[in-house]
Records
---
Amino acid sequence: MIKILKTRKLLLISAAAMAFFAGTEVLSAQNARIKIDIDRTIGKVDKNIYGSFVEHLGRCVYGGIYDPGSPLSDKDGFRNDVKQAVKDLNVSLVRYPGGNFVSNYHWLDGVGPKDKRPTRLELAWGRLESNQVGTDEFMKYTKEIGSEPYFSVNMGTGTIEEAQRWVEYCNVDSGPYYAELRKKYGHPKPYDIKYWSLGNEMDGFWQMGHLNAEDYSKKAREAAKLMKLTSPDIKLVAAGSSNYRPNADPNAWNATILHELRDVVDYIALHIYVGNPEDNYYDFMSTPLVCEQRTKIVKGMIAREMEKADRGDRGPIHIAWDEYNVWYRARAGASMHGTRALEEHYNLEDALVIAQFLNVFVRNADVVKMANLAQLVNVIAPIYTSEKGMFKQTIYYPFQLFSNNVKGTSLDTYVDCGTYSTKEFPIGLGESKTIQKDVPYLDVSTTYDNGEVTICVVNRNKDKAIPTDLISEEGKFDGDFEVYEINGPNVKSENDFGKTTVQTEKKPDIKVRNAAKFTYSFAPHSFTMIKGHIKK
Ligand code: AHR
């Protein structure tokens, strides 16, 4: 009896001490641990994991980045307020022009005098495409926002010759017809577009010109040959599987195309969308782990193919998660088609999922070398516009924190904390179900860059703060550590026009002087970034 009382007393004392850090109820007496070892490196974080995506779909282009009649737009028709928000988001590269759209897009429709460009019936999203924005306008836009372009060619209704001619238009200085056409249209210098993907989601039955893996591989290989003969330094991305519906075989698709294209491509593209259709917070919080699991499976497949590949000095194939996001509300009926298609309104729990996706990319920095948040404006996007203005959705803030801070080398970090398990649940609409065991309440990535460590932590726990010992295994923490937190009154908190409920908040610095350990309590349902120095 005496022993029990003593233990309880001890527990109460440490709980009180921890509540001091957290300002929130704390029930556990044992601190979680994050052990950081700057010698245990995974790989370099590629800046291209901070990519985004602009598709001719709904109000992403027209009414999003481009609104020529608006008093908010510049002389070229680009919305100034949106441009500024995109610049602040620090997007490294932008995928264009689709998505499903690209599989019925003919790039020649979108160049030359605007009044001569044809209006086409756009079959992927059931809308009319005016072609008022095309290659040259988009290239001007990427220059202004300081991002690199990443183009996707039409492997559906398009031909390999059409793909070659687009590369010629964009990348050849002068001489052949399409290079001269670009000059005639007022663009003397080639654009030198480095990244090109060989189609979009070609394994999906919904794709215009959908192919089986063998036929896709043949077409993609020949397109790659012509494109590379035209512009030898381009980097090519193969369309990996996006079809994880119960009757599909995504691993078979990926295995075939990796085998067939292993000498030719530089990336395999993967797509993932997750959601919370059953309104189960804890299930939803574990969905980015599915992305991690798929990453590891494809990493193994790549390793197997690299053994026999003939790639010269081009290094191995990497993974491009060139579409990822939360997308489940605007996914049926009218919300899938027409002008207001795919307009999701995001909340705090969605922002926590985006932070976790970014943690997954950082934790797998050796193989994930590109990622594109789908999409940039209005369509499942961090930026939302009306004719009168715009607001930043909740998911804007974790992306912005990562893209401006997380760089250098990803570290293999040990995390010891409480866990939970999920039952079987769908990760998104139409997708196969999953079970997640031992999901840690803390989702962590760490990077080290020139003496500075950046620690990114999602506390998945909805109700409890998690007091955590941050431990340096090699060298001492030293200096004032900056702390940023993204949180809100509850997990369903949203932003709107004139109302910013969820955003980044700078917390007081943590002062650490030459210590191997400090303690911080991560608030319930939060994303926290801590930045400071480790002295060797
Ligand atoms: O980003 C929305 C759509 O999702 C894209 O057009 C397609 O590639 C994916 O299915």
---
Amino acid sequence: MCGIVGYIGSKNTKKILINGLKELEYRGYDSAGIAVLSNGNFSSFKSVGKLVNLEKRTKDFETRGFAVGIGHTRWATHGKPTELNAHPHTGVNAYVVHNGIIENYAELKKELLKEGALFLSQTDTEVIVHQFEKNLKDLKNAFKAFEKTISELKGAYAILLVTKEEENTIFFAKNGSPMLIGINKENDKYFASSDTPLIGECREVNYFEDGDYGYVTQNELVIYDKNNTQKEPHFIQLATNKLSAQKEGFRFFMEKEIYEQSSVIADTLLGRLNENEVFFDELEENFFEGINEIKLCACGTSYHSALTASYLFERYAKIKTSVEIASEFRYRSPLMSKDTLFVVISQSGETADTLETLKMAKQSGLKTLVICNVDNSSMVRIADRAILTRAGIEKGVASTKAFATQVTVFWMLALHVAQSKKTLTEDELTQHIHYLRAIPTSVHVEDAMHERIKRLSKRYLHGHGFFFIGRDVFFPLALEGALKLKEISYLHAEGYPSGEMKHGPIALADPELFTIALLPQHMLYEKSKSNVEELSARDSTICAISPLEFDKADDFIQTKEHPHYMLEFFEMMVVVQLLSLEISIRLGNDVDMPRNLAKSVTVE
Ligand code: AGP
């Protein structure tokens, strides 16, 4: 995920900016840059890859005395990770850094191009600085121009902007992406998109709220709220431990990533929906022309998201879809026909087995697509087209938010195909889009829910095994729940289709067999319920997850009522993630780095 730093003061500006960016490295990035305004002159440096490249670039650059500076680490969303796409972006006399996504950038860019603005990058961010310069020409006042620019942006942002017009000033705005400011004893001011760059530099910080914008100079901090009313800053004490600051108060990165799902899914959706259409800038209009079949191929959690996708593609887009485990597909001399779209799914984009299948498909002349979280990864470079999931870096080895964003992309993609094949009516599409927009709310972690799961978890620390069961898309979710538990608790767990238990596994049923039953209201409820009753009658210990009361269960986790089964899917996903997390914490395991596992499996 992108990171922002800013500084205004008389210390070594370059050093402060680069050190600040280093503190944000843990969030992941693929390019970085800084811009410093000192004695009326801008100096700007950018580089692709790690910060050491930026350090090399800035080796001979020093500032003396007062300066203002902004810096950025970029995790590519719009446009490849190149130097031109790295921030800060410039127009004529100003530089900007930005986290988030400007949803209406395409419209703004169209107008700006007409008026002669010269765009250098493929990013959404660059429109901010051109829009600002256009407004500055009209209004002749930098703050007014900035204020107007902010009012014209739609989407999520944390923005810092510096301009020669007001050379001792940093303009800032925050909406939907985090940003804070700290002030030290010398009255120097520091900006960052998370706590860590400010630890050790300032003792007190002000966290901006959504809608806040304003400016700082050496002696002033002026903040306006979303109603354009000036407000006082609210300074609070800053944490002192960097690692715990990176975890933002959570016990483990995995826990933080579970909580982040709501905001990263909002990013996944951004700019890809309107009232009755789903679109991907990444795919040309006729991308699906001539495609009669989709083959999805992946490993582990990504395989589970692919399985989920197969239900959605066949149900909504009416296109034949099959799913393959990459390590199996590689060696079974598969038949590939040219009218098949070959889709690989990977959080890292580097998983060796999946990468090999992508190469095989390309060699066979198939059209290929990757759904991936890491731009410029091997798979993204090789596949014909790539859709990025925008989950930000995932540090926990057990994948959570990457899975959530993959499923979100797949639901959108199924609708996108349905739209071009006209297999859904306009009303149905509009309804789905309405539900898609509700995903971020459905995955929001409620305190009461988390507390309940924490309490229940103590009853599930032993036993001779877990069965996670579900039907339809809740079967892949059951597989995913079981995989999460296995990975971090080291307890034996299996995912199974509810209706299949009677064909064998039910023989295991006894009080020491724990069944985690997914019972959504809007997908085969009665059928799934009977399957669980069969297990309950054989004395298996049942933990039911459902919005509907279920009296045959030993434990019951009540989810909210949702209007669509996919929204139930997303809430239940959070429940199984939290259950695995809490069981594993109670068992004393290192949740973020489970034994024997690696985040990216680049060996066969
Ligand atoms: C998920 O929790 C696992 N750590 C693992 O199954 C992972 O999903 C698998 O190795 C595939 O990784 P990828 O998505 O990076 O290709």
